[in-house]
Structures are given as C-alpha cells and as structure tokens.
Design goal:
There is one protein chain. The protein has 5 helices and no strands. With about 120 residues, the protein is mainly α. The protein has a domain of about 70 residues. The chain is globular.
Length: about 120
Amino acid sequence: MGTILAIASGGAIGAVLRHFTGLLIPGVGATLAVNIAGSFLMGVLIVSFTHYWNPSQELKAFLSVGLLGAFTTFSTFSLNVATLWERGEIFVTIGYIVASVIFSIFALFAGMFIIRQVLT
C-alpha cells in the first residue's frame, strides 16, 4: 500500500507541475518542454538509482512512476526506447518507436472520429 500512496502522491505533484508548465509556456511549447525535461530527469534518476543511490522502492516509485509519470508519460516512453536500445534490440527499438507514434496518433484520430459520429 505504501508504494501505491507514493505513486499517487508523486502523480498529484507531477500533474500540478505539468499544469503550471502549461500556464507558463503557451501552446505545444509546454508539451515539448515537459517531454524533454521529463526524459532528461528520467535518465538522471535511472542512472542514479542503478549506480549511485539506492532509495526505497516507495521513493523510486514516487519519483519515476508518480512524479515523472504524471508530469510527462514521454519520459517512460524514452526510458523504454533506451532500455531496448541498450539491450541491442535495434529492430525492436525502431518498431516500438514507429508503432508508438503512428498507432497512438491513429488511435487519437479514431477516438475523435467515433465520438463525433456518435454525438453528432
């Protein structure tokens, strides 16, 4: 239960930080900023956790899954790409990137289309 509360707490803070970023930076600039910052911070955390710092599982979950996960899910996507790449799974990495971007955008348009058909 401690891990769940840590994730929820971090998520609340990350979501609020994301909101304030949107207020400070107009338009898609906010999304770009949080994607870059979140990915950078995920890199810092993961290497720190692996080599230099061993916090509790709750603190790891608070920072990575909660805080950064709510601030930007792109940081997790970036971590998945880096993990696959470092394992030497080059074609899987490329497939994951292409599939994530194309299918996610396609799914967004599909959702928009379906709702527009149902509600109009």
